[in-house]
Design a protein that fits this description.
With about 210 residues, this protein is an alpha+beta fold. The protein is built from 4 helices and 6 strands; from the N terminus they run H-H-H-E-E-E-E-E-E-H. The chain is about 60% helix and about 15% strand. The N and C termini lie far apart (about 135 Å).
Length: about 210
């Protein structure tokens, strides 16, 4: 009996050990399954983020490509509207020339009228695109806008005044693209030896 009583606690301890071991295995299996699920979820999210990155990169490349193409087209066809405005002017000039060749001297009056009309068309087209004509007769000489081609004494004009325009100047939206070539007045010489002192100022500006 004594042996049976002594063996009972040992059996219980062995049983408890087995149960604890089995419980540990169950816990380990559950943790392993959880880790597997977490790993699969992390991998799925990584794949999703990678696909989003590739999509964003592709979209960025497309935007860059479209912007480059738009810039190239702007450079190539930026004057398209202006060119369309000039086509009727060219047509008018060609028609006027053809009329002169076919009718000779009788077409001179018509040619003059047609040329005036063509100039009006050209001026309207230029004005539409911000091209301003500078015809500064009577204005004070401005070296920033005018190019003095010569100077002439004049009692009728104040010194440094534009007396004549040899070639008109032009501005594009306020920016000078060609200065007006002008003749500038200077004071009448007080002595036969030379002009008044203020002419020197114009020479330096020109």
């Amino acid at each position: 009996m004594a042996n049976e009583e002594g063996a009972a606690p040992e059996s219980e301890e062995v049983l408890e050990g087995v149960l604890d071991e089995q419980a540990g295995e169950v816990v380990d299996a559950a943790e392993s399954e959880d880790l597997t699920l977490l790993l699969e979820d992390a991998r799925a999210k990584a794949d999703e983020h990678w696909n989003q990155l590739l999509l964003a990169k592709a979209e960025t490349d497309n935007v860059r490509r479209r912007a480059k193409q738009d810039t190239e087209n702007a450079h190539k066809y930026g004057l398209e509207k202006f060119a369309l405005e000039l086509l009727p002017v060219k047509d008018s000039l060609e028609m006027g020339l053809a009329a002169v060749e076919s009718n000779g001297e009788e077409a001179i009056a018509n040619l003059r009228e047609g040329t005036e009309l063509t100039l009006k068309m050209l001026a309207a087209a230029m004005e539409k695109f911000g091209i301003e004509t500078m015809n500064p007769i009577g204005d004070t000489f401005d070296p920033a806008l005018h190019q003095a081609m010569s100077m002439q004494e004049s009692a009728e004009h104040k010194p440094n005044t534009v007396m004549a325009v040899m070639q008109k100047g032009y501005q594009l939206n306020g920016r000078l693209i060609r200065p007006a070539m002008v003749v500038v007045s200077k004071a009448v010489s007080q002595n036969e030896g030379g002009p008044a002192d203020n002419s020197k100022h114009i020479d330096e500006q020109a």
